[in-house]
Amino acid sequence: MRHIYALVIGGLLLTALAACNTVQGVGRDIESVGRAGRDVMH
Length: 42
Fold this sequence. Notes:
By secondary structure, the protein is mainly α.
């Protein structure tokens, strides 16, 4: 039974880690679009 709990918790942690990476990637994309817009304006 402990093995099942460990697998579930491990799966949840991996999912949370993947979600953080996705959000971080979106933030980088938005930041790069902002930089490109600023460069075009100047």
